[in-house]
Amino acid sequence: xxxxxxxxxxxxxxxxxxxxxxxxxxxxxxxxxxxxxxxxxxxxxxxxxxxxxxxxxxxxxxxxxxxxxxxxxxxxxxxxxxxxxxxxxxxxxxxxxxxxxxxxxxxxxxxxxxxxxxxxxxxxxxxxxxxxxxxxxxxxxxxxxxxxxxxxxxxxxxxxxxxxxxxxxxxxxxxxxxxxxxxxxxxxxxxxxxxxxxxxxxxxxxxxxxxxxxxxxxxxxxxxxxxxxxxxxxxxxxxxxxxxxxxxxxxxxxxxxxxxxxxxxxxxxxxxxxxxxxxxxxxxxxxxxxxxxxxxxxxxxxxxxxxxxxxxxxxxxxxxxxxxxxxxxxxxxxxxxx
Length: 338
Fold this sequence. Notes:
Layout: E1 8-16, H1 20-36, E2 40-48, H2 55-65, E3 69-74, H3 80-90, E4 95-98, H4 110-118, E5 123-128, H5 136-152, E6 161-168, H6 169-175, H7 185-192, E7 196-201, H8 215-229, H9 232-262, H10 269-301, E8 309-313
Parallel strand pairs: 1-2, 1-4, 2-3, 5-7
Antiparallel strand pairs: 3-8, 4-6, 5-6
C-alpha cells in the first residue's frame, strides 16, 4: 500500500479510439471529480489507439492547456487491450484507475474507489449492479459467456465487471511482469490476485458516439479469454475421441455379429458416407481447436511488442514523484497546471 502520510498520485488511464465527439464531455466531467479527491494529485494518461478522426489533435490541445493530462500516441490501432496495457505501463500513480472514454462507467465513483483503497484494499472492483441498460441479446450472451468461461477455467472472473477498477501500485507492478502478447485484461486482472473489494454501480448509456466493439470483435475477445486461461477445450477432445471410438467399436462389433449370426448384409453406401462425413467434421473441429492454441504459441514465439509508441506528449514525470517505489515525496502544494 502507498504511504498515506504523503500526498498520493492517482493515474487515470483512458484508451481513446475515434472518440472525438465524446472527448471534451469526458474531461469536463472527470477533471472536477479528480480535483475533489482529498490529499491527492492526479494525472490522466490518454492513449490514442490509432484514431482516424480528430481525437489526437483534440487530446494534444487539451494536454497543452493542462499539464496533468498526458497523451500516448500509438503507431496504429493495436486494440483496446493493448492500448490499456500501454496506459498502465506509462502511469506513474500510487493507484491506477482504467476507465473508458464513453462515460458509461461513472467517474463519480472514483472517490469511493479511493476511499476503499485507503481502507486497505489493493484492488477495488467496480461491478455493475444490473444489465438493465443492455439489450436482451447482450444480457443473455454476457451471462452465458461468464458461465462458460468460469466453468472451463480454474481462474474465475467476476461477473459484470469490466476494466473500471482501482489498482494499487503493487498490483500494477505485478501486471507489468506478465509478458504475453495475447492480452485478455479481465483475466490478467483476476490472475494477479491481491486483496480485493467490490463496489456496485448502475451503468449509464454512452455520452456520445457509438460502441467500437462489433459482434465479431466481441466474439474474438470471448475466444481470447477462454484460450488464454483454459486448456480444457484441448483436453476435452481426448474424451470426445475416446467416446466416438467406443461407439464406433460397439457399432462395428454389432454389425459383424449380426452378419455372422443372422446373415444380414452390411448397410449400403449412404450410411457409410454419412458416418465418414460426420467423423470428418468432428476431426476438423478438433483440428480447429488445436490450431487456435498453436496459433497463439506462434504469435507469442515471435516476441513482438504488444504495442509501439509513436510519440508522447507531456512526457515529463509529475513533480515530486519518487522513482519506482509507488510513493509521492511530500511537496508544499499540488502540482500547478501548466
